Every structure is written in structure tokens, then in C-alpha cells.
Amino acid sequence: MRIAVIALGKIGLPLAVQFALAGHDVVGVDVDSATVEAVNATSRTYPLEAGLDEALREVVADGRLTATDDYAVAVPDADVVVVVVPLVVDEMTGKPDFAWMDDATRRIAAHLSAGTVVSYETTLPVGTTRRRWKPMLEELSGLREGEDFHVVFSPERVLTGRVFADLRRYPKLIGALSTAGAERARAFYEAVLQFDERADLARPNGVWDLGSAEAAEMAKLAETTYRDVNIGLANQFAIFAGDHGIDVHRVIEACNSQVFSHIHRPGIAVGGHCIPVYPRLYLDSDADADIVRTARAYNASMPERLVGRAESMMGSLRDVRTVVLGASYRGGVKETAFSGVFPTVDALRSRGAVVRVHDPLYTDDELRTLGLEPYTLGQPVDVAVLHTDHAAYRSLGADDLPGIRLLVDGRNVTDAARWRGVPRLVLGDGTTGVGAAG
Description:
about 450 residues, eight-stranded mixed sheet
């Protein structure tokens, strides 16, 4: 098959490589000429995405993958066009901004050929595929969906750093606008993906047709919104437990020993492209989802809550030398999308603290580009707030932070033995947890 992949980001590029590894001819499209040049030259490395660098070199060298910024090169005569263009969500209103996706869809439509399947993998509010993309593609191409071409929604379900493994592990969900479109989409994804056997699934792993684009759209929103709501409940439990001398982590471990309980881990922040964003897309579809709205607000409040507790313990944070440990939204990933580092820094600065940030994955210049003042381990500091669960922070101790007077561990990853004599504020730890010093 000839496949066009629209947008060569952290998901789009591994997808393009996967399709090429399966033996197909792939043309990747990106509006950023620097990205196009880097892909064609295999000069940009992706060391944190397992297996990508080697696979990219292989498929580019073999001519199975090329990149361009010209839709006219990639889209005409493509059997399948896979769209992975980011959907921006306004941080203030929570409303989706379709500008980038509208532009991509218009460009696809301008070059669309009869017989092509257009598969949207970007997470969308329910109804978007049918009500927005179908009429836009039809109007601008002059073709008729379901007869001349087909549109399907098939959400990506992978995490940065393990895309290839996740493509094998999780069923590929599809939801088309017609029966013929569903058949074409199934045939396509079965030809480009391989699936691990999983005894825990009710039916064989592979391509799962959910019957409609709306069902597939909702499935992606539901699985990510569930996680946000679950974490919100875990955070509520953690705050309560810490105030009542209860170790919430032991409580959660005990609860999850029962098959019907799946409580997630509490934490100072929920970041990334998915969990803090997709509940907002669900709310855009279901304005009455008060449970979702409350959980999202509670999770967003966690940096302010923990910094407020730190202020209570210190008496004041004005002019206090403070370091936030970790800029990435989660450990082992060099990504700051919706990272809790920003509201944590804001909460500290609003109280007059002098704030710096440390992250083993970022250079000082990269941190400054993000608007963060870098910190080097060994410099004097009064308060440390652990935001990211990087593996390196598990062995961190008081000796690494000279003068430390308070540690706020928002992930419950530090070793108490390394912090003897230093008050610790650990989220959900009943002995040395929120509201108590240890």
C-alpha cells in the first residue's frame, strides 16, 4: 500500500516507521521543514523512544519512508491517509482549537483521490469525525464519503517512550462512517500492525470495530477520562489520609488486592498530552459531566494545595530558596506538555519564594527556554518540591541539597533514611505526610 502520515511528531513518526517496517511505501507530511529534513537525513535522534532511531534509519535507507512538507506529493493516489495532527485545547476555556486540524483536513481534501481511506487518530470530541471532517472533506474534494472515499476514526493508544510495544499490546479500535469504510480500515490496520496474544482479554487481540466513529471517539475519551477521575479520587484520599495519620499508599495497596478495586496513585500533578486534556474534550461533548469536571479541577489544584501546606510548615516562603525537582510531566520522559512544574513554580513564586528547577533530562539552556531558572545539585537550598518521579530522585538525599529545611515529596518516591533530620511532607504518607513533619 501507499500510505500518507500527516504530522511527524512523537506519535506520527513512530507510526510512519511502523507502517514502513510492515513493508509499505510511506510518505510523511509535516509543516515544519526542519522536521522534514531531519527525518530524511535521520539526523534527529530519539533516544527516549525505544527502537525508533534504528528503525528510522532502516526504513529511510531502504526508501520505504520519505518525508515532505507538500501534501500534493503525499496525498494523491494514497490508499490510506493517517492523520495525527495535534488538537490544541485552550488552557483557560478548556475548549478545543481545531485550527491545525482544519488546515490539515482542507489540504488533504484538496488532493484527495477516489478510493482513499482517511483515518483520524488524533483524540477528538464525540461527533467530530462525522459532523466536522466528513462534510469538510466532501465539500472541498467534490467526492462523496462512503462511495468515493471513506473516513474512519481510530484513536492512538500509545505512550511516548514505548510506542512500538504499545502498538502490539493494545487492540486497535476503529469506528467508520460506513460498512465499507470499516472493512477497509480493518484490512489496513491488520496489514500494518501485529498484536501480542493476551489471555486477559475477552476476545482475541487485534483490530476491534466499535461500530461507529462516535463509539471509537468515546472509547478514547472514556479510557483517559477514567484515569483522571481515578487519580482525582486517589488525591482526595491522600489529602484526607495525610491529615488523619493514615498511610494512603498502604490503604490503596490493600484495596487493590481485591479484584474490583483499581485505585491509581496520588500525585502532585497530572500532566502530559492525554490525561489533563482529554477530559476537557469529553466535557465539550457532555456538558453535564459534573464528576469529570470536579476531578479535573481537584487534580489541577494539587500543586497549590501542596505548596500551601509547605508554606504553613515554613511559616513563610518569602525569599526562601526553593528548587522544584523535575520539569517533565512524568519520570523518564523528556516532555513538559501540561506539566505540573509550571503551576508549582507559579504557586511558589506567588508566595515570594526564589524558585529554581532541576531535571536530569534537560540542559540549563533548555530549562531557561521553558521560562525556568535552572538549579544544580549541591547548591544551597531551603525547600525542595519533588514534582517528577525520575529514577534518579529515588536515591537523592539531604547531602545533595545543602541547607535543606523541608522536603515536599509529591510522588512518594524518596527514601526516608536519606533525609534524617529533615522535615518531609509526603503526599499521603500518614506518618510523615501532608500536614505532618517527619
